[in-house]
Design a protein that fits this description.
By secondary structure, the chain is an all-beta fold. It folds into two domains: 302 residues, Pectate Lyase C-like (3 Solenoid); 70 residues, no CATH class. The strands form four sheets. Strands 1, 2, 4, 6, 8, 10, 13, 16, 18, 20, 22, 24 and 26 form a 13-stranded parallel beta sheet that branches. The radius of gyration is 20 Å and the shape is globular.
Length: 379
């Protein structure tokens, strides 16, 4: 695409890739400004999928709006090689990628980008990836209102990202809610994560629903978080000087709400709510102690033995909004509507009991609901 151009697909129509090269893009722009992409893009019409749905390279002041991108081989959207000041709004990325290293949306060496209202469903790897892990920093990303359901990787992963603000997020059935990392040892501080609801995550052993590496998380702020039914700890942090406020954790597979190691200088404030049996593993001075109570300069009030079972809704028996629903169920291949439900806390997902590791089934899925931001799956 050229400067000052737009591709707008008519509602109800699909712009479909018809090539045969796995590194192609359905839509691409290189060294351009003021590009607009809108509508449904299908990256696969034959045997070979295009690698990318939308690819911006050294492109700025552009927007992907109200897009639905499906079946790419690598990334649904890629902003790379100094592509700053672009925006993604009101878009859905689903069934993209072919490996766990693929990303539904990737911002690579792309500063000052905004992601506002993004839905990520059933992708083969990570949901939103910010950074590259090669000391090519991605700075000042703003993310608001992201919904991620049943992606194999984390909802949000970062490598070498500084000064990001991520708020208003719902993560259901992903590997993790947030994985904050620095592959090359660079110090990438000052990220903010607030107003998260994370349910039924399945982190790997020695990881967590929210994972902060030593170099990747210092001086970060984490507030207004609900983490329920994580397969491992809710938080595992090696980062120093972080601020935690108003967090509720329940029913983790490891019964360890927080694992804090080599992360001195943390401060906890507001409230820390824990379900019965949840503990904290703390090495040295971390802002809380092994009983999850305030330590050092923290002022947090810890509330133990919270009972959220009365809020559990579990599998629904029907959804009047979702056209693929039949009495709360559908075969995997028959799901055409991945997004529309009666509320944002419903999603398609495999039946999953606490502590199990079911992801991306090949046959059938069940519609499930949390009912409210303070509830959990009941399988």
């Amino acid at each position: 695409m050229g400067n000052n151009t737009a591709l707008v697909v008519n509602p109800g129509d699909t712009f479909t890739y018809s090539g045969s090269t796995g590194t192609d893009s359905v839509v691409s722009a290189t060294s351009k400004s003021y590009v607009w992409v809108e509508g449904k893009l299908d990256a696969k019409s034959g045997a070979t999928a295009a690698g990318y749905g939308v690819k911006f390279t050294t492109t700025k002041f552009s927007r992907v709006h109200h897009a639905a991108i499906v079946e790419t081989g690598l990334n649904g959207i890629l902003f790379s090689s100094t592509s700053p000041v672009n925006t993604i709004t009101d878009s859905m990325i689903y069934r993209n990628g072919s490996a766990t290293s693929d990303d539904a949306v990737k911002l690579s060496q792309a500063d000052y980008n905004r992601v506002l209202d993004l839905t990520l469903v059933d992708n083969a790897g990570r949901g939103l990836m910010i950074g590259t892990g090669t000391v090519l920093y991605t700075n000042y990303t703003i993310v608001s209102k992201v919904r991620a359901y049943n992606n194999v990787g984390p909802m949000i992963a970062t490598y070498d990202q500084t000064n990001a603000v991520v708020t208003d997020a719902v993560s259901v059935g992903n590997q993790q809610a947030v994985n904050l990392d620095s592959q090359d040892g660079a110090i990438v501080p000052n990220n903010t994560f607030s107003h998260f609801t994370a349910i039924n995550s399945n982190p790997s052993v020695a990881s967590a629903d929210f994972y902060f590496n030593t170099d990747a998380g210092p001086s970060s702020t984490v507030s207004q978080i609900l983490s329920l039914n994580s397969g491992q700890s809710a938080f595992r942090s090696f980062a120093a000087n972080c601020k935690f406020a108003n967090i509720v954790v329940g029913y983790t597979g490891a019964t360890t709400a927080f694992f804090l190691n080599s992360s001195s200088g943390n401060v906890f404030s507001g409230y820390l709510g824990l379900s019965a049996g949840e503990t904290c593993t703390v090495i040295a001075s971390q802002g809380i102690n092994g009983s999850c109570a305030a330590a050092n300069s923290s002022t947090v009030t810890t509330i133990g033995s919270l009972n959220t079972t009365s809020s559990l809704v579990g599998k629904v028996t029907g959804d009047t909004t979702n056209v693929s629903d039949s009495a709360g169920t559908s075969s995997y291949a028959s799901i055409g509507d991945w997004f529309d439900f009666e509320n944002i806390f419903r999603a398609w997902g495999p039946t999953k009991a606490k502590g199990t590791t079911i992801h991306r089934p090949a046959t059938s899925l069940t519609a499930r609901s949390q009912g409210s931001p303070c509830s959990d799956f009941q399988s």
